[in-house]
UniProtKB/TrEMBL annotation:
Keywords assigned: Oxidoreductase
Keyword match Lyase: no
Domain Gfo/Idh/MocA-like oxidoreductase N-terminal, residue spans: 49-133
Protein name: Gfo/Idh/MocA family oxidoreductase
Pfam families hit by this protein: GFO_IDH_MocA (PF01408), GFO_IDH_MocA_C3 (PF22725)
InterPro entries per UniProt: Gfo/Idh/MocA-like_OxRdtase_N, Gfo/Idh/MocA_oxidoreduct, GFO_IDH_MocA-like_dom, NAD(P)-bd_dom_sf
Family the UniProt entry places it in: Belongs to the Gfo/Idh/MocA family.
PANTHER family assigned to the protein according to its UniProt record, in alphabetical order: CONSERVED EXPRESSED OXIDOREDUCTASE (EUROFUNG), CONSERVED EXPRESSED OXIDOREDUCTASE (EUROFUNG)-RELATED
Segments forming domain GFO/IDH/MocA-like oxidoreductase: 147-283
Amino acid sequence: MRTVGVVMNGVTGRMGHRQHLVRSVLAINAGGGVALSGGERVLLRPVLVGRNEGKLRDLAVQHDLADWTTDLDAALADPANEIYFDAQVTSARVGAVTRAMEAGKHVYAEKPIAESLEDAITLAKAARAAGVKNGVVQDKLFLPGLRKLQRLVEGGFFGRVLSVRGEFGYWVFEGDWQEAQRPSWNYRAADGGGIVLDMFPHWHYVLENLFGPVRAVTARAVTHVPRRWDEAGTPYDATADDAAYGIFELADGLVAQINSSWTTRVFRDELVEFQVDGTEGSAVAGLRRCRVQHRSMTPKPVWNPDLPATEPFRGQWQEVPDNAEFDNGFKVQWEMFVRHVLEDAPFPHDFASGVRGVQLAEAGLRSSAEGRRVALSPIDLGDA
Ligand SMILES: NC(=O)c1ccc[n+]([C@@H]2O[C@H](COP(=O)([O-])OP(=O)(O)OC[C@H]3O[C@@H](n4cnc5c(N)ncnc54)[C@H](O)[C@@H]3O)[C@@H](O)[C@H]2O)c1
């Protein structure tokens, strides 16, 4: 049994605490550690890092952890800490990850890896120059619904994929008469907020991994709700986009159209759903479920607004079986990254792919600001 120190920055936040500390790192340890190919097991020793002593101490007590500090450089100076993980607010990411790489640590980070394409490229190049393993969280790929969708793609279910339509969103309360359920920095442009920067990196890796590289984007980003109330109940100007309507062009004429919104009310089965239409069949995948309709089972509705709907359209789809056990997606990716660090196992979710996610976000914002389609060109990060 081996133990690897993991410096975890931003663990007092929503993602850092719940998904990465509790559901990933601590869950991995509770399950006996990460299994390496030779049968060896690796436990992770989290070192909690943050700005607020009191919050860190409380968190350490809550989870019975010994190591916490407000001094990032001290945590990075300890050679037993081989991995640095960052789930801070996006605007704080580049500086801290850079320091970790300078200290020779392997680095794993939440998305987006930077606020701008220029910074993302600098970070990816620095990782290559330092020769450290690097990774970005791409959790949606590991959701049961998307894993089943991927299985359908790989099994040739769709024939030629024609289009993808995605709906993501829910109502995020303004914060006056009911507390907002997301942190206020998300709604301030100056603090790295905005739904394009938040969600387009997700859409990028989902589209790229399932359907191929994104070639161009046309987007309209808007701020539908310009005034919100923060964690202290103080009103502020919401300067960041809270909804984005995007069209993404892929190879062979495949068009993906994805709405992202914190200003919509849910009339769907899940908070995100993708409908994929192909020549041989269609699928609708959410976070957990995936349903299909084969061409042989496709009804032939006739447009007649004078009559009520004659067919139970939703009932004409079949549920795709799990056929596997799906663990927490964040945890699965953590295990992959640890294996990547310790035994060079494959890990395609590197900073180079994180760069392409930020590229799509930046192109989406430019498309919206300039009112035009923006083509994406390949990014050269130089030799490894
Ligand atoms: N993978 C996903 O599905 C997913 C979902 C939500 C957020 N995220 C990403 O995770 C990161 C954190 O998001 P969150 O929702 O957990 O945010 P959060 O506000 O809940 O947490 C932010 C963390 O950063 C720390 N921090 C460091 N510097 C800060 C500063 N200057 N101002 C404020 N906080 C600072 C906070 O103390 C806190 O620990 C973001 O980069 C976001 O894009 C990813």
